[in-house]
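Quick illustration, no need to memorize.
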Amino acid sequence: MIWEALGSVIVGFAIALSARRWLPERFPAHALTLATGPVAALLGALLTRSILGPGHPVQVMVAAFAVGAALLSVLVRPPRRRVRRPATPLKGHRTAC
């Protein structure tokens, strides 16, 4: 149990670090991202272990990865885009209404 919990925290931290490295502008706060990954992975591991019982370490790690990635995806912001303003119509030109 201790090794599964420690492994899931390491998996969650690795997910958070990789998300922060690949998409730094899309995650709101560095500390929030690094805290959410391990906590979410630990939650997923503990939930899976309570459902399956002992003796399923591979499934527990897969669930820890999946829940960690899913809860980190909640923090992702949409990409920033430039605001494109429509061109102003020419004077005296009729627009279709």
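Residues 1 and 97 are 67 Å apart (CA to CA).
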